[in-house]
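pasting for ref. prot 1 ->
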Amino acid sequence: MAPVKGDLWRRLPRELIDQIMDFVVDDYQLDPAYQWSILRHTSERQCRRIERYFLTYWVPKLTITLYSGPRCQIDYRLSDREKDLDTSRVRFQTVGLGVSDALNKGDIRALWDHYSFENRVAHLRLGEGLLNHGMTGGYIVNDTDIVDLKVDDDGFGIVFDWRRTFDALLREELMMRKLQVEMVTDRKAKLVTEHRWPPFPRIQKLALIKQFVLDIQMAKRVAVQQHRLKHYDPSGRTKLGSLNYESQHLHKQPLPPPPPPSEPRRACCVICSRRTVPSIFEIVACEESVVLSLEDWQQLSKDELLDLYAEAYGWNCYRCLGQKDNLEWQQASKNEWLTVCGSSAEKLHSVRRWNPWF
């Protein structure tokens, strides 16, 4: 089909243009990043239409998770839009279920008091169990800003500007998609030049999974976080709290020597001694599936998908501290995931949250 020339498009009746754009927008209903960040700006009509859709469909599917240390997670979800709030602000609440008995209302409020650009103790998740056909690790997760945040005295409720919060979340999602395409293209060209790009499609996918896990998945987030920092503080004096020591094996950024621990570590392991919340890099390593970064993953069979998920799991284990150069560990971990870790349905369609022992 030949493209519609600009002058012909301008001569079309407004009603017909609106109908065409309605079809285009509806075709991206399960791609909130593109629909919000690109299509919402095509016209005032589409802006109003998409914002109404987001308020009724996507805002209820947003979860904000507050962390207390490495293990306790407190989820906040849409409560209602109170009459005294304008249409840009929504209230999210947690019922307190699953909150540790060691945390009281004052503790939860104190956690929110520490929330800042340099200390993102809360992360956002959109479309858990829904995006990418509900595939494991197919939702959007990031530590972008919760804009104009107000916290109730007991810490169990928060109010924020949902439009600007979605702007930040979905703008960075599109940025990472663009960076990923560029990085994959560059990596393929490099492997071809070095005569290391395999000739068979299946082996090519396995090679890309390795590149995603060991490099691209985190490199694109580092680039976006640095862009965020430059926009927030051009002077560079502010530091990114996500680039911490616990996740340095993931983001691979140089850091100054760590300060001495404030209290002795427990004898059993580093995890039990840890007091810090997980960074977005640790969350992504545990929750996000790189398999869904492959261009044609929707055309793959269940067995092919299982093999690729297992391959990614193996490289994740390979990347863990203490197993950096152990390739046998990667294969052993892959085989273990295929044979032990639940049914096929559970492996491909489940919601997997951060676990410090992952």
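and prot 2 ->
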Amino acid sequence: MVHRAAAQCTEADVPWASGKGNAERRDRSRQNVYSTLQRLDHHAQNKPESIHPPPPNTSRLSSSAAGEMMMLVNCSGCRTPLQLPQGAPCIRCAICGAVTHVAAAPAPGPLADPARGPPPPPAHGRKRAVIIGISYRFSRHELKGCINDAKCMRHLLTTRFSFPDDSIIMLTEEQTDPFKIPTKHNIRMAMYWLLQGSQPGDSLVFHYSGHGAQQRSYSGDEADGMDETLCPLDFETQGMIVDDEINAALVRPLPHGAKLHALVDACHSGTALDLPFLCRMSRTGQYIWEDHRPRSGVWKGTSGGEAISFSGCDDHQTSADTSALSKITSTGAMTFCFIQAIERGQAATYGSILNSMRTTIRNTGGGDSMAGGGAVTSLISMLLTGGSAGTGGLKQEPQLTAGDMFDVYAKPFSL
């Protein structure tokens, strides 16, 4: 068993377009064209006409006596220079009759900053999710079950809750797209994407499986004086993501009528979203809501939406990466128990889910409490990844936090 806590077009482009000598050459070119048209007027009764079939051909810019920008193109048949009226896609040569097509100039688009990567994909759909699984491979922080967690969570969302597959962004080290590697920058961009354009009726899910930690808070907003953090793949060089930033990215922009569920399977994750209220539940299932609103008065809730978070453990606890639950391969204890509660029909309310998760973890290694499960739990059995041994009970208690207090045994659970 491993704990999920980490150790700490310009003029230069067209030079012929300026200069005295070049201007003279352009004037001579226009005079030649004019003289040729006069001499051969009996071959063409009409002036050059514009027609509209498809492009393309090369073009150059010219300036008429009236100051209007013109295209100077070579005829595709006889190579005679022709002046194309502004906006016309093609022109017919009065000499040989050939039609010369001109490709429209591409519309300028936003420039991507190669140092920061492309902008996130456009948000779409009523259901969206960001799933993050970090194994920290080949480092002293390596975890075995986090990518398994991400795969199983994606399977759960698409098969059980009808999340469109293309509305889920998954960040793991297995991704071939460099912008889907779980670095600090990519995680920040994924959080931005999740809330981008959110509106009433949206159901959003944020799932994180990886290392979590704490660092001293200097804002005075934390009752215990510590900020909870998530550890991206590059946290040792780029730093951790602090709960204040997670709250600002995922919670505060959430509009009225939209719903966010977060699942944070990491150490010290009890208040990782900095939500105002924590459901303190006893082993018998009784509970009270603790007020975690900062004494400074800073608002940590939503903009009218509903935010609810399940986390792997309390702020002072560690969360397990273990094979003791699946008996086959490593998983995060919290993610496994959350999925199992849904598959066993113990997810009618938020209270029943939390109770089921806590009971399963307490009884780990105790007889048939780990038996059963459905398609997603069975999927874990098919994951051909190694596992780390785990024995005995797990010393963690999953937590529930929310933007508003509610009756956990009366409120139906839905994604």
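The chain has eight helices and 19 strands.
The chain has a mean pLDDT of 77.
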